[in-house]
Amino acid sequence: MKMNKPHITSDTVINAIANMPQLVFEVTDACNLKCKYCAYGEMYEDYDVREEKMLPVDKAIRLIDYLVDFWNSDRNKSVKRKTYISFYGGEPLLNMPFIKAIVDYVENKINCPDRRFKFSMTTNAILLHKYMDYLQEHGVILLVSLDGNKENTGYRVDKAGNQSFDRIVSNVDRIKEKYPDYFKDRVSFNAVLHNKNSVEEIYRFFKERYDKIPSIGELNDTGIRKEMQETFKKTYRNSRESLHQSEHYEEIERDMFIRSSTYQSVTLFLHQYSGFVFKDYTDLLFERNEQKRMPTGTCMPFSKNWRR
């Protein structure tokens, strides 16, 4: 059977916008740390210039108002769907007035009965002590960046070169003690793997101190400056190799499971090459050779998130 060549139409994009699960605001490109492996740091060259700008509230509100029309339209097929409003940076807590304005606007000033809004944030936790009461009150989901114990976190320094570990852990410990239920349900961790830590060290630190299983990511290996390539090679560590070198490999692999590099590699392979991935059970009603596939190597535009 000859298939029609698939293509993305305006309806495809509109439907994706009306049903998108996440809206991400880069609230500032400023940061109060200067991590040595940062993708905006000295080892990389393919990024836009960091100018310590703050995203204006009025522009964000105009975008939200625009999206509300789609969310309230008959294109929205998601009844009471969770939509995540996420704050990213730089360090988003440096622009807390923006965050408070958007949370207030979404919670109190828009009429969107078919959506349930959740707020999330990636933070280095340096300013967490100032705003933890507000974040807990509004149920903001936190992803805290920390690379393990004090030695493991040696690359996460401020602009004066001072270590950040004690400040981060002090704030995390404080929120854990003050709001234990919030900490249990809404706080998670992300670690960067490099030559100052290992998968096992990262796993042990978070498991023993916070009873949490962290996400672990490798250093970005694209856009490395020519003169920094040797430095990068010394700093980089492969997560699968590090996991397999662990003394307690099976325990860690079992506990981390979905977050493990092995699982992620397998699922990525199956998704891209197996031909046996189904979006939902209705896909099983159709023959595989009748399904149209969109010509995109990543995700459908706006189907995962919309970043501003």
Total separate domains? 1
User: Major sheet: order of its strands?
Assistant: 6-5-4-3-2-1-7
The assigned CATH architecture is Alpha-Beta Barrel
- Measured as a percent range, the helix fraction is 25-40%
Low-confidence region ranges: none
**Proportion in β-strands:** 5-15%
Question: Rough shape?
Answer: globular
Task: Tell me the Rg in angstroms.
Answer: 21 Å
- What structural class should be given to the helix and strand makeup? alpha/beta
Ends: how far apart?
42 Å
CATH C-level: Alpha Beta
Question: Can you describe what's shown?
Answer:
The protein has 308 residues and is an alpha/beta fold. It has a single domain (10-291, 302-307), classed as Aldolase class I (TIM Barrel, Alpha-Beta Barrel), CATH 3.20.20.70. Helices cover 37% and strands 12% of the residues. The protein is built from 11 helices and 7 strands. A 7-stranded parallel beta sheet has the order 6-5-4-3-2-1-7. Strand 2 (81-88), helix 3 (96-108) and strand 3 form a beta-alpha-beta unit. Helix 1 crosses helix 2, helix 2 (57-71) packs parallel to helix 3 and helix 5 packs across helix 6 (180-186). The longest helix is centred in the first third of the chain and has 15 residues, at 57-71. The two termini are 42 Å apart. The mean pLDDT is 86.
